[in-house]
Specification:
With 492 residues, the chain is mainly beta. It has a single domain, classed as Porin (Beta Barrel). It has 2 helices and 24 strands.
């Protein structure tokens, strides 16, 4: 496939836009979001006033993640039957099976397999890294009264190398995935959690990580507020051996998020995240932004996220912006076909030698995963490349079908351009870097299959192929391939 023939490359010659125009674009997107939310609210009101069928639709979707600061226990207010939510491989197990006085258990067993071929783009698809990982993840919830809950979730993972390019030892891990205390029902609508807990947002654009934290949540009718202070791996995660520290582990994160839900499917929220790099003391980024998603009309969903990052790093001022917007149209036809379009842009730095770093940077704890109209989450910037939204534009188009209520197929296409030609793609899973001579990173095609038709069993299968562009060396036409499968059986 010749990526030079892809038309978005020509259209994006506009992207060397001045930074003031970038800011205007983001401000206009925020204004459009407010307009969209008004339209969506009016549409919801019209639907609510129309005659209602006694049977709820099975094709609805949720823009929320359940009660504020979910506890994953028996008294969390969630259904103990399988929920019609997209399969999230990182979701903790619910502990709802009575096991003794005030003690509940649950958990899951899973099998994860992944093979990566030609991630160094050296035209040798015969070489691959293939890992098979069985996982056991029990969960325990102690709930002595309506005010307290203690939740613990250790995870045992035993990776086995099926095929390796280089001989690397595979280490068994016993991770303390989650362990926290929840105080609730003392003040109506308020909760407090202390310990290692899960941080997520609806599209995992900011967070998809378990961190040691103290966190407060408050909900009043449709309004919710969350405040937290957190740090990654403040307490050792792997109980069998000490892990090497990552850059993000030095950050202390101060987070605030206010959210308002309107209608049945929509929400709009504001967030602020201040990160202080304690270990090295060289970075203090401050990110503020807006998130909104929901339903505009029957069958038409939208999402919009926009953010600006300020602060300082290594003696430079940080001045970055980003936007991520998209639409998914579901058609009321056989197999429930859907079409998705999306655009994401994170600014780059045209002059690395001045005192201003114009690159947008995500939090370092993001997951960048969501669903379109299927039953399984996937990496919406590409399963193979999986970049962070820094110095990058991502054009996305998707086609999906749901032959059955709990079975989905998504075919997703991405086209990538750098904002400014660079020798680095931040967050990329590839084992090689671009030359810095061209903005044209390449394109990718992913096939995502999700299945939840058997009670307690969740399955996801992914195929992905990355077609390198002119940003890479002369062998850019030789692509990278990924195949992965995940089987998970839940006990609750």
């Amino acid at each position: 496939m010749d990526t030079n023939l892809v038309t978005p490359a020509r259209a994006l010659r506009l992207t060397s836009m001045p930074r003031d125009r970038t800011r205007q674009l983001i401000l206009m997107a925020a204004a459009c979001t407010l307009s969209l939310t008004s339209i969506a609210y009016a549409a919801e009101r019209a639907v609510e006033q129309a005659p209602q069928s006694p049977t709820p639709s099975s094709t609805g979707f949720s823009s929320t993640n359940g009660p504020i600061l979910p506890t994953y226990g028996a008294a969390n207010g969630q259904r103990t039957t399988p929920a019609a939510e997209p399969f999230d491989p990182n979701a903790p197990p619910r502990a709802t099976i009575p096991f003794g006085p005030d003690l509940f258990v649950g958990g899951y067993v899973s099998l994860e397999g992944e093979t990566n071929r030609n991630y160094n783009l050296k035209s040798n698809l015969g070489e691959a890294d293939s890992i098979l990982t069985p996982i056991l993840a029990p969960a325990f919830s102690y709930e002595p009264n309506q005010y307290l809950q203690l939740y613990v979730n250790p995870v045992l993972a035993i990776p086995v190398a099926v095929e390796e390019i280089e001989d690397r030892p595979q280490t068994t891990e016993l991770n303390m995935n989650l362990a926290y205390l929840t105080v609730k029902n003392v003040v109506p609508g308020a909760r407090m959690q202390v310990g290692r807990q899960r941080f997520i947002d609806s599209r995992r654009w900011l967070f998809n990580e378990n961190m040691d934290a103290i966190r407060f949540g408050y909900q009043y009718e449709q309004f919710s507020l969350e405040l937290s202070v957190s740090q990654l791996n403040l307490v050792q995660r792997n109980l069998l051996r000490r892990e090497a520290e990552e850059d993000e582990e030095g950050f202390v994160n101060y987070y605030m998020h206010a959210d308002y839900k309107f209608g049945k499917k929509n929400h709009i929220g504001l967030f602020a995240l201040y990160q202080d790099q304690q270990r090295l003391g060289t970075a203090q980024p401050i990110t503020v932004g807006l998130q909104s998603s929901g339903r505009l009309f029957e069958g038409l969903k939208y999402w919009l996220q926009t953010a600006a990052v300020r602060g300082s790093e290594g003696g430079q001022r940080i001045r970055g912006e980003a936007i991520d917007v998209g639409l998914t149209q579901r058609f009321d036809r056989v197999w429930e076909p859907s079409i998705t379009i999306g655009y994401a842009y994170g600014t780059g730095d045209s002059n690395p030698n001045d005192n201003v770093d114009a690159r947008f940077r995500q939090s370092g704890f993001q997951g960048n995963s969501d669903k379109f109209n299927g039953v399984a989450r996937f990496k919406y910037y590409g399963e193979v490349l999986d970049p962070r939204l820094t110095n990058l534009m991502v054009f996305t188009g998707g086609l999906g079908i749901r032959p059955f209520e709990k079975t989905s197929f998504d075919l997703v296409y991405h086209y990538y351009l750098q904002d400014h030609a660079s020798t680095r793609i931040r967050g990329s899973d590839l084992d090689t870097n671009p030359t810095g001579l061209s903005k044209h990173v390449g394109s990718e095609v992913d096939l995502v299959v999700g299945y939840q038709g058997i009670p307690h069993l969740q399955t996801k299968f992914v195929l992905g192929y990355f077609f390198p562009g002119q940003a890479f060396a002369e062998t850019w036409h030789d692509g990278a391939f990924l195949a992965s499968i995940l089987l998970r059986y839940n006990f609750y």
